Amino acid sequence: DTAVSQTPKYLVTQMGNDKSIKCEQNLGHDTMYWYKQDSKKFLKIMFSYNNKELIINETVPNRFSPKSPDKAHLNLHINSLELGDSAVYFCASSQEGGGNTEAFFGQGTRLTVV
Amino acid sequence: GESVGLHLPTLSVQEGDNSIINCAYSNSASDYFIWYKQESGKGPQFIIDIRSNMDKRQGQRVTVLLNKTVKHLSLQIAATQPGDSAVYFCAENSNDYKLSFGAGTTVTVRA
C-alpha cells in the first residue's frame, strides 16, 4: 500500500499550458508539502499545508497554486508553464510539522516543458 | 571512503568499506536533523534522525553524529553494500513546517 502517491509520474507538456499534479497520503498525517528538485538534485520546499491550511509559501511564483480539499490530499496546479518549470516535483507528508518528525515522500512527478 | 571537508558532491567507496558523508547545516536554531537516501527514479527515503539534545545515534549499519558547535552532521555507513549506492541528503528543520535540505552527496559503491 503506497503511503504517499502522486500522479502522474511523468508529464510532458508544451510551454504555456496549464497542468495539475495530484497527491494523496493514506498515513493520516496532518501536514503535507510540495518540493521541487532541479537537475542538480537540489531539493527546495515550495509549500507546506497543515490541516488544509497554507503554512509556508516559499516565494513560489503565483502561477503555482496548491489546493488541499482535505488533509489527505494536496494537489498542485501550474498555469502558463515555462521551460524553467521542468523539474521533478515531490509531494510529502508528516505527522506533525516537519520540524519534529520525518517527512514521507512520494515517488515524484517528472515534469518536462518543451 | 569519506567526503572530506564539509561537503563533496560525490563519494566513491569500495564494497565492504565504511562510508562517511558529511554535511554542514546553516541554522543554529535547528533542533532536528534527518538523513535521507534517494535512489534513482524514487523519492527520498528516511534513514535516520537525530535531535539536538543528542550527539550520536545508531541504526542498523548507520550512525549519525551531530556537532552543534560547528553545525556539522555526518552519516556513517558500515560495510557499504552495492544497494547503498544513491544520493544522500541531510535535512534540518528550519522551522516547524519546513525541512531544508542540503545539496546531496552521490555515493557510488565499487564492487
How would you describe this structure to a colleague?
The complex is a heterodimer of chains A (114) and B (111). With 114 residues, chain A is mainly beta. Chain A is built from no helices and eleven strands. In chain A, the strands form two sheets. In chain A, strands 2, 4, 5, 6, 9, 10 and 11 form a seven-stranded mixed beta sheet that branches. The N and C termini of chain A lie far apart (34 Å). Chain B is globular and about 40 Å long. In chain B, the strands form two sheets. In chain B, strands 1, 3, 4, 8, 9 and 10 form a six-stranded mixed beta sheet that branches. Chain B has a four-stranded antiparallel beta sheet with strand order 2-7-6-5, with no helix packed on it. With 111 residues, chain B is an all-beta fold. Chain B contains no helices and ten strands. Chain B has strands at residues 10-14, 19-24, 32-38, 45-51, 56-58, 62-67, 72-77, 86-95, 98-101, 105-110. In chain B, a hairpin with a 3-residue loop joins β5 (56-58) and β6. Chains A and B meet through β4, β5 and β10 of A and β3, β4, β8 and β9 of B.
Specify the number of helices of chain A.
0
How many beta-strand elements of chain B? 10
Strand residue content of chain B: over 45%
Shape of chain A: globular
Question: What is the N-to-C succession of helices and strands of chain B?
Answer: EEEEEEEEEE
Order of helices and strands of chain A: EEEEEEEEEEE
Radius of gyration of chain B: 13 Å
The biggest beta sheet of chain B, please?
A: 6 strands, mixed
